[in-house]
Specification:
Blueprint: E1 13-18, E2 21-25, E3 35-37, E4 43-50, E5 55-59
Antiparallel strand pairs: 1-2, 2-5, 3-4, 4-5
Protein backbone atom coordinates (compact mmCIF):
# COMPACT_ATOMS: atom_id res chain seq x y z
CA UNK A 1 0.00 0.00 0.00
CA UNK A 2 1.47 3.33 -1.02
CA UNK A 3 0.46 6.67 0.39
CA UNK A 4 0.45 9.69 -1.83
CA UNK A 5 1.36 13.04 -0.38
CA UNK A 6 -0.89 15.75 -1.82
CA UNK A 7 0.92 18.44 -3.78
CA UNK A 8 0.68 21.85 -2.21
CA UNK A 9 0.77 24.65 -4.73
CA UNK A 10 1.90 28.06 -3.54
CA UNK A 11 2.99 31.07 -5.54
CA UNK A 12 6.00 33.01 -4.34
CA UNK A 13 7.55 36.27 -5.49
CA UNK A 14 11.32 36.81 -5.76
CA UNK A 15 12.06 40.04 -3.88
CA UNK A 16 15.88 39.97 -4.03
CA UNK A 17 18.54 38.04 -5.93
CA UNK A 18 22.34 37.97 -5.56
CA UNK A 19 24.96 35.40 -6.64
CA UNK A 20 22.46 32.64 -7.38
CA UNK A 21 20.51 33.02 -4.12
CA UNK A 22 17.04 34.53 -4.14
CA UNK A 23 14.80 35.77 -1.34
CA UNK A 24 11.21 34.72 -1.97
CA UNK A 25 8.01 35.89 -0.27
CA UNK A 26 4.73 34.01 -0.27
CA UNK A 27 5.77 30.45 0.60
CA UNK A 28 4.62 30.00 4.21
CA UNK A 29 4.60 26.18 4.19
CA UNK A 30 8.02 25.55 2.61
CA UNK A 31 10.51 23.17 4.24
CA UNK A 32 14.31 23.07 4.25
CA UNK A 33 15.89 21.34 1.22
CA UNK A 34 12.59 21.35 -0.68
CA UNK A 35 12.80 21.94 -4.43
CA UNK A 36 10.91 24.82 -6.01
CA UNK A 37 9.33 24.34 -9.41
CA UNK A 38 7.81 26.43 -12.18
CA UNK A 39 4.19 25.99 -13.27
CA UNK A 40 5.26 23.40 -15.86
CA UNK A 41 7.13 21.27 -13.29
CA UNK A 42 10.69 22.37 -14.03
CA UNK A 43 12.86 22.40 -10.88
CA UNK A 44 14.51 25.80 -10.55
CA UNK A 45 15.70 26.19 -6.95
CA UNK A 46 16.50 24.48 -3.66
CA UNK A 47 15.41 25.94 -0.31
CA UNK A 48 18.50 26.63 1.83
CA UNK A 49 16.97 28.74 4.61
CA UNK A 50 13.89 30.62 5.76
CA UNK A 51 12.51 33.00 8.36
CA UNK A 52 9.08 34.43 9.16
CA UNK A 53 8.86 36.59 6.02
CA UNK A 54 11.08 35.11 3.31
CA UNK A 55 12.65 31.92 1.99
CA UNK A 56 16.27 31.73 0.80
CA UNK A 57 16.62 29.56 -2.30
CA UNK A 58 19.65 28.55 -4.36
CA UNK A 59 18.70 28.82 -8.03
CA UNK A 60 20.02 26.10 -10.33
Amino acid sequence: MTSQTPKLQEIGCVVAFYSGVGKIRGLPFVQMHETLQTEDGETVALVIGYDDATVDALFL
